[in-house]
Amino acid sequence: MSAKKLAAVLAAALLAVAGCASTASQNAGTSSTGGTGTPVSIMVGGLNKQIYLPFMLAQRLGYYQKQGLNVTLQDEGAGVDATTNMIAGKVDGVGGFYDHTIAMQGLGQSLESVVSMLTTPGEVELCRPEVRGQIHSPADWAGRNLGVTDLGSSTDFLTQYLAQKNGVDPAKIHRVGVQSGATLIGALQHGNVDCAMTTEPTVSTALAQGAAFILLDMRSAAGTKQQLGGEYPATSLYMTTKYVDSHPDVVQKLVNAYVEALKWIQEHNGAQLAEVMPADYYAGPGKDAYAKAFDNEKGIYNPTGIMPPDGPKTNLAVLQAFNPDVKGKQIDLAKTYTDRFVKAAH
């Protein structure tokens, strides 16, 4: 998303705080821990996606209540819209990819990640079977319709970068917002997009239905390094620096809950996870497939919550390769994340 377009979106959101920043957010689901604890609102870029697992898991295991928090989780289809809502003051934090803090610093906004939940993106590029003999890598993307969560989302960032890296001008590809789940799978089945980037459980569902094949896979450290050049910190809780500085006690309690959730993830398997999560989270792929997908990609989760030391440099290099909001600008990575709350939680 260009600086001009995103600035316009942010301006619209700020002028309509009582409204919704997008159609998706108007239909967003809401889940609250209840109780009388300190109220906190977090918007997540797809609550049922396994890459955002810690947010709902912490609720299901009672970790928010344990910290004396009444957390409301709002479901939003794309991180860029969640970020817009937060800057507009409608939510306190965002469950989304860390790279948004870098992109927004390029636009003059100060956001920071307070806990790192994924050390790899967990993203997979799926393509419809009809193009198997035509698309062998991103080098074959010129002129193709490519599905992303939404324009300006992290999948949009990664899609443009992979095109650029493989010799295809991002201006020569057609990026289409298809969200995830049934919407994304339907776009592949109807030929609206040739390929699309998504995560579990959508990946398992699409493969089981024969709706796609895997073009590239970033669910492992090796796969991520091959595609992006190094470790790429992804899911995090990020907030405005103003909120972090003015509510350190609330932030610490949130981070305590997420560090505990990350530890639980390391100590349990997919079958145990499926017993804890809402049934509609695995309604598409089925309970067994949902559990297997978790077991297969368990390595994406950050076991400690500490930001990988070399990770932010990779994120910055990816964005600087194509994103006009970041390219050529001085980005202070030290201001895009903090580990002080995670260290205090251990």
From TrEMBL:
Highest taxon in the source lineage: Bacteria
Keyword annotations of the record: Signal
Residue span, SsuA/THI5-like domain: 53-268
Signal peptide span: 1-23
Compartments where located: Periplasm
Keyword Signal belongs to the record: yes
Gene3D superfamilies linked: Periplasmic binding protein-like II (3.40.190.10)
Keyword Signal annotated: yes
GO biological process, one term: alkanesulfonate transmembrane transport
Alphabetized SUPFAM superfamilies for the sequence: Periplasmic binding protein-like II
InterPro entries per record: SsuA/THI5
Any single Gene Ontology cellular-component annotation: periplasmic space
Family in the record: Belongs to the bacterial solute-binding protein SsuA/TauA family.
PANTHER family per record: ALIPHATIC SULFONATES-BINDING PROTEIN-RELATED, TAURINE-BINDING PERIPLASMIC PROTEIN
Protein's recorded name: ABC transporter substrate-binding protein
